[in-house]
């Protein structure tokens, strides 16, 4: 895996300067077997502005490839569509954080999908952490983006878990007080990410639009993307 400085939004002119600021670190592609659900933490889909930066947050940013299989994804999408079919796409969000999207909250799932949601919660939240009862479902159109933001502490606690369906995308994290501290995450289709503690509170997160959607120099086309987001109650 390559760790390299990632550009800020619309800052392509800083490319040469960026690479002069940081060395490029190489690391063998690795997975770490997790105890819960035999899931595997994948580091190969995470790029940071330096090795030191990566090491400082690796316990706060977890990524699990292939968290659900194709049939599980299909079952989730079928149930989600019944909730979204009467919801119109919006061009802007009430807090200006999202463009070209629609969203809903799902409290009850069929038995098969309920088991998937419980797997997410079991992996993301310890027993002393109370998860919010509903799941936030965000449907991002192909031309949709999520702008840099930090989720309000009024609405959720220290852990956020998101399951990516339909399309891969690039999530960019930027430290609020150090714009040179940047992490890009390749969210593959059917992968699960978990953000907690420092990553959750100190970094903005965003989903890049197609004009910026690159990972290790390779274009990652984002089509319509649905994410299931599980949060815990605010402390």
TrEMBL record:
Gene3D superfamilies: Alpha-ketoglutarate-dependent dioxygenase AlkB-like. One of its GO terms (biological process) is DNA damage response. This is Alpha-ketoglutarate-dependent dioxygenase alkB 7-like protein. GO terms for molecular function: dioxygenase activity. GO terms for cellular component: mitochondrial matrix. It comes from the Eukaryota. Keywords: Dioxygenase, Oxidoreductase. Its cofactor is Fe(2+).
